[in-house]
Specification:
The protein has a domain of about 120 residues: 3-Layer(aba) Sandwich (Rossmann fold). The protein has 9 helices and 7 strands; from the N terminus they run H-E-H-E-H-H-H-E-H-E-H-E-E-H-E-H. By secondary structure, it is α/β, with parallel strands linked by helices. Strand 5 and strand 6 form a beta hairpin. The longest helix is centred in the last third of the chain and has 24 residues. About 50% of the residues lie in helices and about 15% in strands. The structure holds adenosine monophosphate. Adenosine monophosphate binds next to helix 3 and helix 4.
Amino acid sequence: MGVGDDGAILMAEDTARGTGPIVLLGPPGAGKGTQAKRIVEECGVPQISTGDLLRSHVKNETELGRLAKEFMGRGELVPDQLLYDIVAERLRAPDCERGFILDGFPRTAAQAGWLDAFLEHEFFDRSRPGKCLPFVIRIDVDYNELWLRLTGRRTCPLCGRIYNVHLQPPRVDELCDLDGSQLVTRNDDREEVIRERLLAYEQQTRPVAEYYQQKGRLVSVDGSLPVDQVAEQIFHAIERHARDRC
Ligand code: AMP
């Protein structure tokens, strides 16, 4: 994990207590999913990605999936009201008791307000560790780097391994190193859609960071560094937060 002895002890204690709610903010391609998985491994709390939840509704052709698909296909945000029920249902699950990592939610100031109200109402309990308002970590990466990361992203449909044709190419063009499958581009990683997704972040998600900053619950980390170093900054931030939680 790369933190000092004291830090390691603190993280171990924190793991037992749970992390409380953590929100990972950042533009598409900043590495929220990758870092969320690191926190899951380290702290044993679940990752909740609204993008994944919505994609599974689209795949299963539910009513919500049908409504969300149009917006997602254009790279636009799905209307706030469509998100609240699925997020509430997921956060009420027993595995969220000790904390959770939200990846991709909230994405508008209204969603941030809704989340605070929901947690105050259903989750907040000072007597129980892990039950408090979210601690927010924003991963910053500049626009040009994001562009390369998103336009180059390819996934193996068989094993799920992720490549980047600019930054981490497979050994043979567009084929998975592990099983030789033809790599695929996620539907919303097409260039015209990427442009919209980055615009949606600038216009709608930046105010979310301001909302949390005003409440003193936001820290920023440099997401352009290698994955391990970004993780290290994040664990330090969680560790500091754990000292005076809630
Ligand atoms: P992601 O995988 O997080 O990049 O999300 C993929 C797409 O799902 C986004 O481009 C949006 O269309 C939709 N989406 C995911 N999370 C949200 C959210 N919190 N609010 C609105 N739309 C969302």
